[in-house]
Amino acid sequence: MRLIRRLDGEVLEGAIVETEAYYGLRDPASRAFHGMKNYNRLMWREPGRAFVYNVHRYWMFNIVAHEPGEVGAVLIRALEPAKGVEIMLRNRPVEDLRELTSGPGKLTTALDIDKGLHGADVTTDRSEIFVVADDLDFEVGTSHRIGVRRDLEEELRFFVKGNRFVSR
DNA sequence: AGGAAGATCTACT
DNA sequence: GTAGATCTTCCTA
Fold first, then answer.
1. Domain count of the fold of chain A
2. Strand C close residues, chain A 134-163, CB < 7 angstroms
């Protein structure tokens, strides 16, 4: 899918090329693992809302996603920049374009995503941030999740094979 | 009020 | 490959 961010009348856009899935209470790497807190309660709510939270000094952008009655979210880990690259570079100056949005903290910096977007409905273009379908053809690779202390056995990281903007 | 943890990133070697 | 920076949130007192 493509991720679209409206910012001061401008449009920033990129193709989502890397994601990770997080479950609920049975997933030790999930923010939901220790139970419902004020900051993570959205993971129990209906899919399609932005779930934004902080790690170190960066914001992580997730979309709530799970089966009915379940708990979970998908972390957006990397984008292939498509529109508004000039503005992204202003938000996050880098020499090599591959460094612009190839990581969860990098892309939130480039797209100026922070707590203010927490709870936004990403299924409608009336939001400041939303996704639209893309019908490109590509192969999906999988691996274990990156940077987590305790992972599950199943591979829950998904990326576009061969894409230059994948984080690693 | 203070400490610890964390789904990170950068700058070094 | 690894150390250190640095910010939000939660937990305990």
1. 1
2. none
